Amino acid sequence: MEPRAVLSTNLPTPKEQTALLAEGCDNVETRADLQGRIATKKRLTIKFGIDPTGSFLHLGHAVVLHKMQQFVELGHRVILLVGDFTARIGDPTGRSEIRPRLTDEEIAANMRDYRAQAGKVLDLERTEVMYNSTWLSKLTLTEMTGLLAHTTVAQLLARNDFGERYANNVPLALHEFIYPVVVAYDSVVMEADVELGGSDQLFNLLMGRTYQGHFDQPRQICMTTPILEGTDGVIRMGKSRGNYIGLTESASEQFGKLMSIPDSVLPRYAALAAFRPQAEVDALTRGLHDGTLHPMTAKKRLAEEVVARYHGAAEARTALERFESTVQRGELPSEMGELQAGAWRSVADALIGADFATSRREAERLIAGNGVKLDGEPVGDARQAWTATKPVVLSVGNRRFIRILPQRGT
Prior knowledge:
By secondary structure, the chain is an alpha/beta fold. It is 45% helix and 12% strand. The longest helix has 17 residues, at 174-190. It is globular and about 75 Å long.
């Protein structure tokens, strides 16, 4: 059943809606089309496709989810399209190798996790969910051949990642060429007015616009949002890169990671993580440039603002106070978990036992990076023995603390 639209009698004008929706996008194809479509159709069909190839969402994913929510709040029909069929192909965007293919069980598990996390940004009660296997799995070979006939190899090689892999003799499988075609066909079946995506998806979105023209439909408006850099301030945010801030991480973990971002990307995070209006982002940029705003002050305010989005104002304030006491004043947190020591031979064993590391290699890397302390004293040797016979505080960095109680019988 289609979710009930919540339409206001005081909706912004088409021009005002267009200005609101276009703000923060790095491409709108085209803005005039968007304003005209809103004026004539009133309630648009908005498409955002997600292939559940992973299950972990971070602030980078939230950029486009926030844009979806703006459409929801304006009363438009917003559809989260689950690419349960296309996930079996895998979008090769930005990749230099063929994606591994997922099983049905992996896809279902990833999507359950995705929905739970997306709900922190998107009102799922007012969002429709579709699955592209509904129509793509029914295509015959004749029908698929007909779709492929609308696209040339030259057009597909114009996509940067395809072209680069082909030029560098990196394997490029035929099934990867199908991906942009079938996601374009999704737009035809859904009769999408607008398709949203990250800037790396522009080629696929424009393909949808082209295919709708082949099927004599009004061409969708393509809207893309920027890619958010990770906590290193350089490379796009990603779990595999270790530079992410997860939507479901604790308030103190989110706060601490936000405080670690370089000053140079503060305006980017203000726009893409805190979703401040452009005028406020510009004011922040000027203040940092002319020295009227101290980076530490700006960063604390930003971190508190972002954490409040996912955990509420009270937890965000607690995270701020924890940061100021543990990081800036070097104090131990007033509250921390406790763990009974196991039959550990080394500090590395303790890190694994406390779930601060998932393997001995990771534990040794943390120690080598001078991030591990016992009662505030750095652990310098990855092979240091565990000899504690009384309660001791084990910490990693400035955000993870746990009190280790002596092993029973010692």
